[in-house]
Design a protein that fits this description.
The complex is a heterodimer. Chain A is of the alpha+beta class. Chain A contains 11 helices and 11 strands. Chain A is globular, with a radius of gyration of 19 Å. Chain B has a single domain, classed as Orthogonal Bundle (Cytochrome Bc1 Complex, Chain D, domain 2), CATH 1.10.760. In chain B, helix 2 packs across helix 6 and helix 4 packs across helix 6. The longest helix of chain B has 11 residues. The N terminus of chain B is likely disordered. Classes of the chains: A alpha+beta, B mainly alpha. At the A-B interface, helix 1, strand 7 and helix 10 of A face loops of B.
């Protein structure tokens, strides 16, 4: 980890150099104090002190919302303007619909999602004692479908799963992300942390190089955030659909000219757990809007 | 995770592409981060070098570096130093070294190595997300390095 510290020192010097030497400071930094209130009622914590486990690597953590353009930020303040909500409606229908050999819907067992799923997303991924493994929300949904409903598993990166994830996420909106990193989940967490700081691909970049060392700076046209996952699932203007965490990870790894991991793989689950824990204290914000 | 050393395949690809005087990525000799001799023996073309620096499809240096000499290029990055006056700060040999492998000059640099083929972890096949195959090549060809260098030497 010494190298990383050294790197950030060099990086800061280089940035200072750029500011004194350069005259083309066309980009403005983000307004870090901007407040997000959804529908005039749900206050979202988009800036807070970094969790202790980051050990000074970051002083503060920020939602990706902070770094988006004004129009994108504003659209997220009202669910009528948030295209991600369309998928929540679709998932609500699926929630109530009987599917599979057992003649059951999600609602048959879980009742109203507003009650049974409140607070669930905030703690995921987490250790499932009965199964003896760390699970994501998506894994729980597929487990219910295959073992409890006698229905087929949904594709992990598919539209149905991402929409259901959004419906479940919505029930935790405004609650603090609170993912456990100790106990039986610790080894997966350590594995995710190792991945986060490993430079991959021909460009030799780690997640930390972009999202820890250089957030709030521009890499070409992209305004880098801290790569937090509290806003997922994310409606991206770029592909006009809801995107899950693993799909986003895949894109970021691919952009380092690396061989990616598979969405749904244990590798990405470990990374999902670790990255989620870097956002402990931010509000669950999904479904959010990003570019 | 162990570094996946690219074996014979990559080496072979690199060797077949070599012209007589070209120095292969693994054979470049550094002295204090600097590389004194041309890696092609052919004088660099600053016009092509300028294109490589600016183009997303080529060096894409502008992703990280602003460059006062290119006000025509939109969205200049804020990650590395402005390239203005770089030839006053470094010698030609030092800049060649930075271009071939910036890690030698700047320990653990965020700047990619533009003329190197080994020592990568999970190297991919360009931006496909798939594993690297026998088409794996350095980010820039040897002559592109010399061209970019010729361009940067005009930034005084």
């Amino acid at each position: 980890m010494n190298n990383k510290l050294l790197k950030s020192t060099l990086g800061t010097l280089a940035i200072a150099a750029a500011m004194t030497v350069g005259s083309s400071a066309v980009f403005a930094g983000a307004d870090l104090d901007k407040k997000l209130v959804i529908n005039g009622e749900t206050e979202i914590v988009t800036r807070t002190a970094a969790p202790a486990h980051l050990d000074g690597a970051l002083d503060e953590i920020f939602s990706g919302w902070i770094f988006r353009k004004d129009e994108t930020q504003t659209a997220q303040m009202d669910d009528f303007d948030n295209p991600g909500m369309i998928f929540v409606d679709i998932a609500q229908d699926a929630w109530n619909k009987v599917d599979g050999s057992e003649g059951k819907s999600c609602a048959s067992c879980h009742g109203a999602a507003e009650e049974s799923m409140a607070g669930v997303k905030a703690t995921y991924p987490k250790w499932n004692e009965a199964a003896g493994e760390v699970r994501s929300i998506d894994m729980e949904v597929n487990n219910c479908r295959t073992t409890r409903m006698g229905a087929d598993a949904w594709k992990l990166t598919g539209g149905k799963m991402t929409a259901m994830n959004a419906l479940i996420t919505l029930q935790s909106r405004g609650m603090p992300v609170n993912v456990a990193i100790d106990g039986p989940a610790q080894s997966m967490w350590e594995r995710g942390k190792e991945m986060y700081y490993t430079k991959t691909g021909q460009l030799e970049m780690s997640c930390a190089n972009c999202h820890e060392d250089n957030y709030d700076l521009h890499i070409r046209a992209d305004h880098l955030s801290q790569g937090q996952t509290n806003g997922f699932p994310v409606y991206r203007l770029k592909n006009a659909k809801l995107n899950g965490v693993h799909a986003r990870f895949k894109g970021c790894v691919r952009d380092t000219r690396a061989q990616t991991y598979k969405p749904g793989s244990e590798d990405f689950l470990a990374l999902e757990l670790y990255v989620a824990s870097r956002g402990n204290g931010l509000s669950v914000e999904g479904p959010s809007i990003r570019n | 995770m162990k570094p996946a050393i690219l074996g014979m395949a990559a080496l072979f690809a690199a060797t077949t592409a070599l012209s007589a005087a070209e120095i292969a990525p693994g054979d470049v000799v550094f002295e204090d981060g600097a590389v004194a001799a041309s890696i092609t023996g052919v004088v660099g073309d600053p016009v092509n070098g300028r294109m490589v620096v600016a183009s997303k499809k080529h060096g894409n240096c502008i992703a990280c570096h602003a460059n006062d000499e290119m006000p025509d290029v939109a969205f200049q990055g804020e990650i590395g130093p402005n390239l203005a006056g770089v030839a006053d700060r470094y010698s030609e040999a030092q800049i060649r070294g930075i271009l071939v492998n910036a890690d030698v000059t700047f320990e653990d640099s965020f700047m990619p190595s533009f003329y190197r083929v080994d020592g990568y972890i999970r190297p991919g096949k360009r931006y496909t997300g798939k594993a690297a195959d026998d088409t794996f090549a350095p980010l820039l060809a040897a002559q592109e390095i010399e061209d970019v260098l010729a361009y940067l030497m005009t930034l005084k």
